[in-house]
Amino acid sequence: STGFDYRAGVLHAEEVPLPTIASAVGTPTYVYCANTIRHRFHQLDQAFHGVPHHIHFAVKANSNLSILSLLRSLGAGVDIVSGGELYRALAAGFHGRDVVFSGVGKTVHEIAQALNAGVQLINIESEAELVTVNAVAERLGVIAPIAIRVNPEVTVDTPHAYIKTGEKGQKFGIPRDDVSRLVACLPDLPNVQLRGLGMHLGSQIGNADPLRDALPRLLSALEQARAAGQPIAFLDVGGGLSVPYEAHETEADIDDYARIVRAAALDTGLTLLLEPGRFLVAEAGVLLTEVLYRKHAAGKDFVVTDAGMNDLIRPALYQAYHAIDPVVITDGAVVADIVGPICESGDFFAKDRAVPDVQAGALLAVRTAGAYGFSMASNYNSRARPAEVLVDGEQFAVVGVRESQEDLVRLERAPLHWRTA
Ligand code: LLP
Question: What is the residue-averaged pLDDT of the chain?
């Protein structure tokens, strides 16, 4: 279960009725179920039982401190892509050794921040970055533990091109044919130590084929590094596990995924690193929103909600499908566009969707919004970002306070101190 179920016709998050949260906190609000996150973590952890492994949650999927703390308490580490995410991870109680640092554009400042924190691995994505990491480490008088992120250049099938990363010609990783050249540079770079090989194929990957194609390529890169005498300890297979968004979609076969990865990893004797984001948190969240108006125009029906694309951008950015359920079961059906208040025609949650005939004042739950929901929210149209609530059994707590209108202008000021060029 996702933690969201109807009882007596009312959608609950675990034991808490969603209308209770709406009255206490208002809307729009993200609601997360702690037990669903616990369940997903244990499911993945169990699937790799018997293989040395570590699950590094991709912070970008949901960076709320309480979600990070929850995952830390379960034994997770983190995969970060910025100094800001490192700051959050440390604030949530993670140690440097729990952290893997990915990303194609790390700044000198971020690299220094990561080395000072003592991160487990910095994933290298270019030769120029390798040289920079070595220079920063030298300045700080440390040896930087690094991994090479290999681009295995396989064909990846995802619902949208924007979430593929492991194909040829993309900005991510070192093309597999260039790995040996990078390894050959290492003897001249005494302040880095190659500790791992990694990859990340993309997100919401529909089947195991890309993984089957990519693992041998990652292993061949590993052989090259080992042949050069590098002390490799980690094999990082990235994230990308899919979750069902539509009713007809089935859950990802975790055991199948684990079987393929385990088979490849066991012989290497390395510690396996996993970087799931979506899988751990997507289904555990909904965006709770209120219907502001019903509208009929040009032969079409519209349901206008108080949440918009600034709160949840996935439909606008990726034409992503999110199921939308009435919080109180409602009779009648209508085919409508469910749209937000923002001045863009891309501001919709669903198009021509058959939905219950909800009226103004009704609550809706936009499902599967726990990953890449709040973390991608913005202030567009000067809208304060929504509140976030964590539910655990019969209890709920505000874990992200709704922004205020003062917050919107807090960092802005009149140009009192002009500087002369
Ligand atoms: N590791 C690396 C290096 C990544 O770039 C990503 C995601 C992950 C792990 C986690 O992937 P996951 O397990 O969540 O699929 N905003 C998009 C998804 C972008 C994913 C970017 N990288 C969306 O809303 O669908």
Answer: 96
